[in-house]
Amino acid sequence: MSFCDRQLDMKTPLAVTQCLDRARSIYGASLGVVCGSTRLTYGEVAARVDRLSSGLTALGVKRGDVVACLSFNCHRLLELYYAVPQMGAILLPINIRLTPDDVAFIIEDSGAATVVIDRALVGLFAPVRSRLAHVERIILMGGEAKAQDAIDGDDYEMLVDDGAETFERPALDEDAVAELFYTSGTTSRPKGVMLTHRNLYMHAMSLIAALHPTDADVQLHSIPLFHVNGWGTPHTITFVGGRHVMVPRFDPEVVLATIERERVTQMLLVPTMAVALLNAPSAQTRDLSSMRRIKLGGAASPPSLIAALDAWLPGCTITCGYGLTETTPVLTCGCVKAGLEGDPTRSVLLRSTAGIPIPGVEVEIIDEIGQPLPHDGVAVGEICARGNSIMAGYWKQPEETARAFEGGWFHTGDVGAIDPNGYLYVVDRKKDIIITGGENVASIEIENALYTHPSVLECAVIAVPDPLWGEVPAALVVRKPNASADEAGLIAHCKSTLAGFKVPKRVRFVETLPKGGTGKILKRQLRDEYIRELTGAT
């Protein structure tokens, strides 16, 4: 055997399992997870993960199977992030803010035969259980195991307790799908984003290189872990031996109390969360001196918000970033480069941009014929990216995948500019997507709901500015002749079929909707007119 052959034999696949393997080996005695009254060392977490994998195997979960999960942030969900992929299976965390019908579509489309559910969330699954005949196994966690639940299933803790101490891990392929996330995308049909072991491993390494987390960091999981791992933190923080602190729901006072009690050093927020924290009653009296980093994402953050956070937490670095579910998700971070940090005003402006690409990622702006544009801060094109953390593709949608990767770049559908220092500025979002409180909402889905009302002739849903949520959906509706529907009635109608965050917050009735030469409704014109009306601009 040649030296090169021996070197190849020594290589191990880039797998997410290595994150926990390293933590078990080096930080086994260190406190790894805080979840309410539960406090687990990395050694204890790893042992539970192995027993869980053994238990799932005994239930019949196999390599390549999809395991769906409906859960709040908790140590059990973090355990699933390792127990499922190390079996060669695929973890599918589902957004718990969706409706039962949304959940049913995702479970059906993914083919998940195993569903893990927090007992407090069985109401999202029980109404559609009868439609999901392919679901073979239900595992219930949290709450009281002896309680009478609306659905039957195995108990998570019993599965862990009864699992074998040693799990014989199968050989893992770094290009195999490890995690699956559904995103609404640009249409009403959700798309499953396939993230491989290699994607997740390389994304963790890139974030470590960009942000330099260490085993001294205490990460508060303020972002739900079903949101693309809450920006990849289950892998990044575990890899370096940092501490995970779980909060099941975002409550400003609970978050502030947790930061003070657990000496949290960093967290991730969408802008609406940051605003809520700034305005919480105890914001100015809590001891938050442990905080070192806040990263904002999910929606655009104005410089004024960055400045307010700077003043509130003077020892904390506040930066924005940019990414998508399809990019694992972080592409860029708004760090201030050496030589540009002298001017405080400029620093705030730079940190409110999408930022510079993290190591291992290339970002480009491309024109309509696929050519890169100059980085002069003026030229505007579609934001495209490539790198090892870009998804493998869309689940069971090869045509959508091919379209997304046309020309060898992943096409985000967002429009932006890059300045001479390499900072990315997101100029506009996908035209029909509304980003409200960090959630992506497809306007066509709301329009389809409105069209089921007997009084609606035509409608268009657009995003309008909102001081709390960043933007919210608003509907412009043309009523059928002699129809008498009012705003409250249409909103109530939407509430009967849509998740709460998708329901239009305003309904305006108009005589006609502007259309182009092909009959397509001109939404940009509607947005401009509506915003001028809201602001009183001429």
Overview of the structural elements:
This protein has 538 residues and is of the alpha/beta class. Among the domains are: 9-29 and 41-197, ANL, N-terminal domain (Rossmann fold, 3-Layer(aba) Sandwich), CATH 3.40.50; 435-535, GMP Synthetase, Chain A, domain 3 (2-Layer Sandwich), CATH 3.30.300.30. It has 16 helices and 26 strands. Helix 2 (17-27) runs parallel beside helix 8, helix 3 packs across helix 4 and helix 3 packs across helix 6 (156-162). It is globular and about 70 Å long. The termini are far apart.
Say how many strands there are: 26
Radius of gyration: 24 Å
Name the CATH architecture of the domain at 9-29 and 41-197.
3-Layer(aba) Sandwich
Q: How much beta, percentage-wise?
A: 15-25%
Largest sheet: 9 strands, mixed
Helix/strand/pairing category: alpha/beta
Report the span from N to C terminus: 78 Å
Q: Strands of the biggest beta sheet: in what spatial order?
A: 2-1-11-10-12-13-14-15-16
Assign the CATH superfamily of the domain at 9-29 and 41-197.
ANL, N-terminal domain
Q: What number is the mean pLDDT?
A: 91
Q: Shape from CA axes? A: globular
User: Helix content range of the residues, please?
Assistant: 25-40%
